[in-house]
Structures are given as C-alpha cells and as structure tokens.
C-alpha cells in the first residue's frame, strides 16, 4: 500500500513523487498479469500458445482451467521453480513456460471455449486472466478429398472409355474377319456346285 508522505517545508513535489514510487516498489505482495492475445482462432490439429506474462515479488502458483459446454476441466497447476501437476486428460498435450504461458498441442473441436488462468503469490494476492479459443474444422481438406475423388473417378472413366473403344474396334475387326470367312466359304460352295 502507498503511504502518504507529509509535506514539510523544503520538500519539493518531485521529491514527494520519488518517495511514493520507492515505497510502492518495496511494498510486499502484489501480482500483475498481462494477456497479450485474449482471442485465439485455431484449426483442428493445430498447436496453440496461450500466452501470458505475470510478475510478482514472491513465489507464484499458476493454475489453468478450461470451461466449455462440456464442463470445467483443470488443465495444469504449478509453482514456479517447484512442481508441475498436469491433469491426466492433458498429460501429453500441454507444455508449461516460466512466464505462466502454456502450449496446447493438437487441438480439437472440444478444446474450444474459455481458458482461465489464476496466478496466486505466496502472500495470498491473486489475479485472473481469460483467453477465448475458437476451433474450426479444416475445410480445405474436405475440398482436397473431393478434388482427389473427382480426379480418380475421371481417370477411371477415361480408362473405361478406352477399354470400350478397344472392345468396339476388336468387335468390328472380328465381324469383318467373320464376314470375309463367310464370303469365301460361300464362294467355295458356289464353285463346288458349278463344278458338279
């Protein structure tokens, strides 16, 4: 807390402000938290960084929770320089950083929602921050699948058309050969008849 410095003769305003600032810096307790990006848009399977920056004079305990339509889940809690307690749901998906930030790997639709951070310092002072995460389906992958399927069907159609054309040609050749054989057989029969 700031202490009032009594104004005495000979004390300038500048000296008064300097004294107040020094008292402010040396006062026990107090924690601050900065959330530079309170809204994050992500796509499925992306890694996201929930970035924060805290400062306090004592040892801080950091806790992250996720709140969505599926309920509230505690993600991680740790004390700077001591322990890190990650919930089993997030065991292989969360990385913690000394500044209080966490990285969430391979996000899914269920990871959308509100992420609350609580920073509590050893004197009992705490502060809160919130980050909203929106997760979207990857539309271009669906379009990619459709394009590949269309190309595959077009290739199969082209092969079938070529096969049908070859079959048709073979049939015409077979019919011509059969017609020639029939004609020559007919001529032989007519010749035999004439000879008789």
UniProtKB/TrEMBL annotation:
Keywords: Glycoprotein, Membrane, Signal, Transmembrane, Transmembrane helix. Residues 37-136 form the Immunoglobulin domain. It is found in: Membrane. It comes from the Eukaryota. Its main location: membrane. It comes from Chauna torquata (Southern screamer). SUPFAM superfamilies: Immunoglobulin (SSF48726). GO terms for biological process: filopodium assembly; positive regulation of excitatory synapse assembly. This is VSTM5 protein. Signal peptide: none annotated. The chain crosses the membrane at residues 143-166. Gene3D superfamilies: Immunoglobulins (2.60.40.10). One of its GO terms (cellular component) is axon.
């Amino acid at each position: 807390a700031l202490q009032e410095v009594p104004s005495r003769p000979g004390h300038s305003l500048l000296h008064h402000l300097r004294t107040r600032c020094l008292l402010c810096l040396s006062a026990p307790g107090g924690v601050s938290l900065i959330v530079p990006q309170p809204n994050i848009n992500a796509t499925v399977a992306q890694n996201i960084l929930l970035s924060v920056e805290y400062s306090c004079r004592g040892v801080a305990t950091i806790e992250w929770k996720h709140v969505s339509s599926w309920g509230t889940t505690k993600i991680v809690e740790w004390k700077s320089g001591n322990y890190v307690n990650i919930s089993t749901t997030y065991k292989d998906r969360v990385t913690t950083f000394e500044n209080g930030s966490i990285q969430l790997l391979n996000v899914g639709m269920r990871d959308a929602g509100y992420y609350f951070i609580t920073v509590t310092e050893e004197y009992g002072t705490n502060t809160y921050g919130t980050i909203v995460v929106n997760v979207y389906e990857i539309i271009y992958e669906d379009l990619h699948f459709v394009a590949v399927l269309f190309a595959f069907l077009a290739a199969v159609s082209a092969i079938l058309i070529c096969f049908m054309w070859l079959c048709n040609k073979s049939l015409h050749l077979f019919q011509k050969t059969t017609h020639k054989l029939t004609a020559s057989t007919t001529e032989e029969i007519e010749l035999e008849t004439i000879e008789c």
